[in-house]
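User: I'm putting together notes for a lab meeting next week and I want to include a structural view of one of the chains we've been expressing. I don't have a solved structure, so I'd like a prediction I can at least talk through. The sequence is below, exactly as it appears in our construct file.
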Amino acid sequence: MSGHNKWAQIKRKKGVTDKKRGQIFSKILRAISIAAKDDPNPSYNPHLKAAIDQAKEMNVPQENIERAVNKSSEAKDFEELVMEAYGPEGVALLITAHTDSRNRTVAEIKKILSDNGAKWADPGSVAWAFEKSTEGYNPKFPQKISKDAEEKILKLMEALDDHDDVAEIYTSADINPSD
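Assistant: Thanks for the context. Below is the predicted structure for the 179-residue chain, given as structure tokens.
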């Protein structure tokens, strides 16, 4: 008769969804704090305005958004990192992260990359394959890859996305995650 308690099932599902929601909220609020460092007024700061709009789309409470803007002036120093890597079949990866400890984040990302068959790349060795746009980075030369490599890349991207500091992951692979 194990698993017959409906409340226990609901509690487990809610725990999983709340954890994912919390990770998304913390990533968005960290991005708001970083964007607010330049100018805490969203009317004059397009990065902050975009981050706040994204937070509102994800139903982040207004009180949390205001707290993140105010937090930007505190001593805790968040910075944005752009890291480069090569995945299976030489696929280029750009990873953006918001962190308060550059050394910790870099070490953890390197570990995730090595565990998933990817390699850390020197600065500038991958960035040339992307062009920066208002939405992020777009690959200049989308790369066709095998189904096996696509599965490995999706697994790597999921592992990276589970890391609290990772904000966005961009790849040069022509992947369709809905397949």
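A couple of points you could mention at the meeting. Residues 6-71 form a domain with the Arc Repressor Mutant, subunit A fold (CATH 1.10.10.200). The helical segments are 6-36, 46-57, 62-71, 102-115, 147-161.

User: Perfect, that's what I needed.
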